[in-house]
Amino acid sequence: MKTRTLKRKTALRSLCGAGLLALASCGGSALTGSAEPYPADTCLVTDNKLGSMGDPVSKVYQGKEVKFCCQPCVAKFEANPDKYLQKLAAM
């Protein structure tokens, strides 16, 4: 009897953990409905075509969606966002 109860509790905890993990992974890079969409099909930092270096990386910064060709471009953007936001405003 105790073994059956223990197995049920373990299974329930596993399901809850898997559900929480799935839920947490959904919110990471999802855009909110209020984000201004990115207007170009090129990377904001390098001007490379999005998708040319694998899956593009999207980020919402100050209510605006920004897209990059790769993760290193995100670091370059974060080091000097004002420079790239001016470029974005000119698009």
UniProtKB/TrEMBL annotation:
Keyword vocabulary terms for this entry: Signal
Q: Which InterPro entries match?
A: RNR-like, YHS_dom
**Which ranges does the record mark as transmembrane?**
none
Gene3D superfamilies named in the record:
Ribonucleotide Reductase, subunit A
Q: Which segments does the entry list as coiled coil?
A: none
**Entry superkingdom:** Bacteria
Which positions fall inside the YHS domain?
59-86
**What are the boundaries of the signal sequence?**
1-24
GO MF terms held by the record: oxidoreductase activity
Query: What is the protein name stated in its UniProt record?
Result: YHS domain-containing protein
